[in-house]
């Protein structure tokens, strides 16, 4: 019925694609037959948040995309090539602060630029300018000469974000990045992240255990089944845009509340062992297979 588009041959591969990925640790299956594709259209990557029961393979999926781990079966492709090792095109941000304790904010942000200076081909002045610019962008200018122990948790996560962005990764992998922060700081960080994504548009995969955080941050929310993990729900249409709207304001909107309801309901089903259903509220995952 459908004729292929003439431009199809020129379409770039998805920035990240999983093809029937299974991961086993010994006899334990962490992920089973996971397939998805995340396109990058006109330089714009998607913002995907991932929620699901503890131990369902969320961190495992990020580790696969990062190239820290390989699938037992299937393939993870980054820009069409298997993700066999980490690369500068992928940045990882963890819940635990990952800055160097003996370096100041500025030195931490400069670090990756310094060690990659030959490949990046940017001179010392340009490296410094870039680091200073990122420090401004994440709101750390008054703290640039401080050491990590002199910063709050939120400020330390700002350093981690600036350090990652310095390498201009096309893909940002975030594993519960704000879970250790108090609520006001968490909301500030959510707003900052949405703002940065709207400006720079990396593809972001962000694991969170908060439904409202998942809905606020993303344009696409995945809900994983219990282990062995699979994407039970891939929710896009219900997610309202949040750019330029502070979280507390966004959360008061009817469409936000509706989205939180939809996602919470799906999460509840998954937690009860129901993989997905045709409730009319939620669209079950569309497997992205050729
Ligand atoms: N290197 C490993 N060796 C053995 N088991 C692992 C390893 N990494 C993860 N697992 C197990 O796989 C499951 C999924 O882990 P993980 O991806 O960390 O879950 P989560 O969804 O909570 O992030 C867990 O049961 C975990 O104990
Ligand atoms: Mg995890």
Compose a concise summary of this entry.
This protein has helices at 58-66, 105-115, 117-120, 124-137, 153-166, 183-200, 211-217, 247-250, 254-271; strands at residues 16-25, 28-38, 40-41, 44-45, 47-51, 73-78, 81-82, 90-93, 171-175, 203-207, 220-224, 231-235. By secondary structure, it is of the alpha/beta class.
Structural summary, described in words:
This protein is α/β, with parallel strands linked by helices and 290 residues long. The protein has a domain at 98-168. The chain is 34% helix and 21% strand. The chain is built from 9 helices and 12 strands. The protein has helices at residues 58-66, 105-115, 117-120, 124-137, 153-166, 183-200, 211-217, 247-250, 254-271; strands spanning 16-25, 28-38, 40-41, 44-45, 47-51, 73-78, 81-82, 90-93, 171-175, 203-207, 220-224, 231-235. The strands form 3 sheets. Strands 8-9-10-5-11-12 form a 6-stranded mixed beta sheet, sandwiched between helices. Helix 4 (124-137) packs across helix 5 (153-166). The longest helix has 18 residues, at 183-200. Mean pLDDT is 90; it is low at 278-290. The structure holds adenosine-5'-diphosphate and magnesium ion.
